[in-house]
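Page 37, continued from 36.
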């Protein structure tokens, strides 16, 4: 029997799968309609997002943790400002380096406007990158106190356990990983809000890329930000589905956010406060201006009664992903207008000689510092991690929706392989193999593997030699069953932020396949065999939800425990569907091996 030929003959309708995924997400995600927007309900929406998304599952003291600020050093200049080196403790032992650019004394004795300046994905230079320094220096020379925060994974925070998608370690434990990002930027705002020389009604926020995302997220949910200027920071779900470069990291796609609000809703939450939305004409990263304007600005502008308070700016020069001179000028002019500051000519305010090196601006961290892994470890051992034997609880975690095989499409001429189409539109691929000598007592092996058919060949041969029948299956997001133009981790991320769970779909498929095979082939002697981290967990969960009897379960190359995902620092991108919110709290610390 030519196993490889049969496997290669099975084709997957990846375009159809993409359409099905898009439909599921659009059906689950809340759509923005300006005619239905009620300003009087804005505070209720803010509270709901904070309660159910940002601080979901967090210890009670996280939300009220008082930001601690340490002054490490001060750089005096002869240019009308000084730079204080600060570090902010946003959670116990979790420190964020920061630089405070402030006008020189004695000018500081009068109250000043302030700007919370935040980073995007700027690489190892972090807060010392030139365009950020130029912006902060310029603002300080205009009399605006500016606090610039280091961002996780960049600059002084480049430890691998600050990597953005490792927030999934907290999600796995049932604690919102997004909360750490929120607390970091909120800590900067807390500092400015309590500063004795800051005008509380005149605090703005701005940043590029991930800094633009930080700006919209904090400004939408915390009204202490009086002016928001996000630059190339976000877009709606429709664009993220069709442009992979717009998707971003996990913090930008937090679990279940789209069941409450899309980024259009967050933009509407800025109203009536002044907002300048900067996007770039030929952005080589994400969020191209001509897509962002109709999706974000045009959708929200009718909510603003004063058009001068809600402005869209398309940068042409250079038009790439930037916060260069032209975009900075838009920032300065917008702030001068809404902070009632005198217009100052831009020439001479940003001098190359004033830009300092990375080493000059190092703040330093304490010897003991927390990160995503250390926090997750603490949570793991604080929580009572016991398996839930109650299917309804497991179903809630998985957002489980039972499904059934609605259609079988055969692609092999001898009816040995094809696609299983489910009633939710998703699909799985399958190949069937029978031993040359059929025996009365042979078993049927349902075989699943992370890497799909090509990794199953040895197992298929061995089972056939033992006289067993084999149904090899590629479940959703395994093997070749991946939507066109979408990666496994992007698909999983977008499903989760829409209130769905990719793992739930995978488990439901396997349960349905077991029931389908038992019904169609009148087979009660089914043995489930998995190969890999992901399918090993899928098999364990399916066993809890399958109503029939499984003779045995064979697991190869599986995790010994879900804790291995954290202990072994497995990246989210490697097995994203396993980082299902709160799953760790409801599975045994050790998994059965057979």
């Amino acid at each position: 029997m030519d196993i490889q030929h049969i496997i290669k003959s099975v084709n997957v309708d990846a375009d159809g799968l993409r359409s099905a995924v898009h439909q599921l997400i659009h059906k689950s995600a809340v759509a923005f309609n300006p005619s239905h927007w009620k300003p009087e309900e804005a505070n209720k929406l803010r509270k709901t997002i904070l309660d159910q998304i940002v601080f979901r599952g967090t210890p009670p003291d996280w939300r009220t943790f008082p930001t601690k600020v340490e002054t490490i050093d001060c750089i005096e200049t002869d240019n009308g400002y000084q730079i204080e080196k600060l570090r902010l403790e946003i959670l116990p032992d979790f420190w964020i380096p920061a630089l405070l650019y402030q006008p020189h004394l004695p000018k500081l004795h009068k109250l000043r406007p302030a700007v919370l300046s935040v980073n995007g994905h700027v690489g190892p230079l972090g807060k010392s990158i030139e365009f950020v320094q130029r912006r902060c220096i310029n603002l300080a020379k205009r009399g605006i106190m500016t606090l610039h925060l280091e961002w996780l994974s960049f600059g002084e925070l480049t430890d691998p356990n600050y990597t953005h998608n490792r927030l999934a370690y907290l999600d796995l434990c049932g604690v919102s990983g997004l909360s750490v990002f929120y607390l970091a930027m909120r800590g900067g705002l807390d500092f400015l809000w309590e500063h004795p020389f800051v005008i509380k009604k005149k605090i703005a926020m701005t940043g590029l890329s991930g800094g633009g995302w930080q700006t919209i997220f904090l400004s939408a949910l915390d009204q202490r930000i009086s002016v928001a200027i996000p630059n190339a920071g976000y877009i709606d779900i429709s664009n993220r589905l069709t442009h992979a470069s717009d998707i971003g990291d996990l913090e930008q796609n937090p679990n279940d956010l789209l069941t409450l609000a899309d980024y259009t809703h967050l933009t509407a939450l800025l109203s009536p406060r002044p907002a300048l939305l900067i996007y770039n004409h030929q952005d080589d990263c994400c969020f191209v201006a001509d897509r962002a304007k109709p999706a974000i600005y045009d959708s929200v502008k009718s909510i603003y009664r004063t058009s001068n308070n809600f402005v869209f700016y398309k940068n042409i020069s250079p038009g790439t992903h930037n916060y260069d001179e032209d975009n900075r000028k838009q920032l300065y002019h917008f702030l001068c207008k809404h902070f009632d500051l005198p217009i100052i000519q831009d020439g001479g305010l940003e001098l190359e000689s004033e830009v300092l090196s990375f080493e000059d601006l190092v703040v330093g961290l304490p010897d003991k510092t927390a990160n995503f892994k250390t926090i997750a470890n603490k949570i793991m051992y604080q929580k009572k991690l016991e398996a839930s034997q109650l299917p309804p609880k497991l179903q809630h975690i998985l957002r489980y929706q039972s499904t059934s095989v609605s259609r079988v499409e055969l692609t092999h001429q001898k009816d040995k392989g094809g696609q299983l189409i489910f009633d939710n539109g998703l699909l799985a691929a399958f190949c069937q193999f029978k031993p040359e000598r059929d025996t009365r007592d042979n078993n049927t092996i349902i075989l699943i593997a992370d890497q799909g058919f090509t990794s199953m060949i040895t197992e298929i041969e061995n089972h056939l030699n033992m006289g067993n029948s084999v149904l090899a299956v590629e479940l959703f997001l395994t093997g070749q069953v991946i939507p066109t133009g979408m990666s496994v981790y992007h698909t999983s991320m977008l499903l989760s932020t829409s209130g769905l769970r990719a793992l739930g779909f995978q488990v439901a498929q396997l349960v349905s396949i077991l029931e389908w095979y038992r019904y169609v082939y009148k087979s009660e002697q089914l043995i489930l065999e998995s190969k890999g981290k992901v399918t090993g967990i899928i098999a364990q969960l399916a066993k809890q939800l399958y109503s029939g009897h499984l003779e045995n379960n064979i697991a190869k190359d599986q995790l010994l425990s879900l804790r291995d995902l954290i202990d072994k620092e497995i990246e989210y991108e490697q097995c994203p569907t396993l980082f299902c919110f709160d799953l760790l709290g409801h599975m045994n610390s050790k998994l059965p091996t057979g």
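The CA atoms of residues 203 and 224 lie 7 Å apart. Flag for discussion at group meeting. The chain has a mean pLDDT of 94.
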